[in-house]
UniProtKB/TrEMBL annotation:
It comes from Cyprinus carpio (Common carp). The keyword Transmembrane helix applies. Residues 48-173, 204-338 form the EXPERA domain. This is Transmembrane 6 superfamily member 2. The chain crosses the membrane at residues 12-39, 51-70, 90-115, 127-147, 159-178, 199-221, 254-275, 317-339, 346-364.
Length: 371
């Protein structure tokens, strides 16, 4: 009789734990517990920037994401099985697996670097913007993709655990963008020389403008493809080159629409900024955009090659090389542009005249009023 009571109790506990609502409650409790641990560990020397708590909290979830991806790919077993079944089953889609790899490796490294720089009172604004762009793009594709794709029937209460990871990086991006840029006053002679040069005498910038125009065309092309435009060339491209664009999971379609309506205007703005001296916003937005595009392309390319993707939606072997080259160029170009802007910012700096009559260039924050 006693053993039967114990068995019934165990069955009740197992049934209770595997309820979808309980998975959500446990997830919230774990996130709160991790935050409290970080808060208590730093209470005698609290960080001045609340983003410290964000990075510490999210670094914990990176380990969970990496474990999930490894388990779906068969490298581990038994760690995430209960959550995969009753929590977020769509994490088993190829796109989500590649997204978890990115979060578990790249984002984890970024969090460690950001926490290290914060602790040593070093500058971290640029690195933070790259993180914000990456995570914002990650979640803006992931969350709507779950809802509009074929996995909409698998949405459980644990789906709402994604909301902090969607909203917090948006707040983080706004916070980082609103902070003054770290740039000392220096002589403006070099900046004046650079800003007087026409685009044709700046071959690297000219090359970037050509790249940006080509990237805009590629963005429009793929955006029309997922919108079922009847042009023969689009149908042929989807059939012979990137059939993953038609995968019913929803993620590729949401990503192409995100690129069409958000990345396309930014690509055009960057081309304008390379032709217009004093465009200080280029120094921030290129970094943010580089993080977003790199994350999107990693997940897109990886998912289109992943063995869990149905064979009819994978990149055909015959066209593998050109498709990979196109997607890699699309991913790497914004990163190179961001590096160009950060390493040689002279062309983008605002030139002002000091009261003493010396011409200098200064990195002017948006919220700075000069009297």
């Amino acid at each position: 009789c006693r053993s039967s009571k114990i068995l019934c109790s165990l069955m009740f506990i197992i049934f209770w734990i595997y309820r979808p609502v309980v998975i959500l409650e446990i997830g919230v409790a774990v996130l709160v517990a991790v935050f409290l641990l970080v808060y208590l560990a730093t209470r005698y020397n609290p960080p001045k920037d609340p983003l410290f708590y964000v990075f510490a909290e999210f670094s914990f979830t990176c380990v969970i994401d990496l474990t999930s991806a490894l388990e779906y790919d068969g490298y581990t077993s038994g760690f995430m099985e209960f959550y995969q079944k009753t929590g977020e089953p769509y994490l088993g889609t190829p796109y989500a697996i590649m997204m978890c790899y990115w979060d578990g490796i790249v984002h984890f490294i970024l969090y460690l670097m950001l926490i290290h720089r914060m602790s040593n009172r070093q500058q971290y604004r640029t690195l933070g913007l790259f993180w914000a762009g990456s995570l914002c793009a990650n979640m803006i594709v992931f969350v709507p993709g779950i809802v509009v794709g074929k996995n909409d029937s698998e949405i459980n209460p644990a789906f709402w655990l994604n909301m902090p990871f969607l909203l917090v990086p948006i707040w983080g991006a706004v916070s980082l963008f609103s902070r003054p840029r770290d740039m000392p006053l220096v002589g403006a002679s070099k900046a004046e020389r650079e800003q007087k040069k026409a685009l044709i005498w700046r071959p690297l910038d000219l090359l970037f403008v050509v790249y940006l125009v080509a990237a805009m065309g590629f963005t429009i092309f793929r955006g029309l493809a997922v919108l079922d435009c009847p042009l023969e060339i689009l149908n042929r491209y989807v059939t012979e080159y990137e059939p993953y664009l038609k995968d019913p999971v929803g993620f590729p379609k949401v990503m192409m629409l995100l690129l069409l309506f958000h990345a396309l205007p930014m690509l055009g703005s960057f081309a304008y900024g390379l032709c217009t001296p004093g465009s200080t916003w280029m120094l921030d937005w290129t970094v943010y955009f580089a993080g977003a595009i790199l994350q999107c392309q990693w997940s897109h390319i990886g998912a289109s090659l992943h063995p869990r993707t149905a064979e009819m939606y994978r990149i055909p072997i015959m066209t593998l090389v050109p498709v990979l080259l196109l997607n890699l160029l699309y991913a790497v170009g914004p990163v190179l542009l961001a590096l160009r802007c950060k390493r040689e910012p002279d062309y983008f700096l605002s030139i002002i005249n000091c009261l003493i009559g010396t011409t200098v260039f200064q990195w002017v924050p948006v919220n700075l009023v000069i009297t």
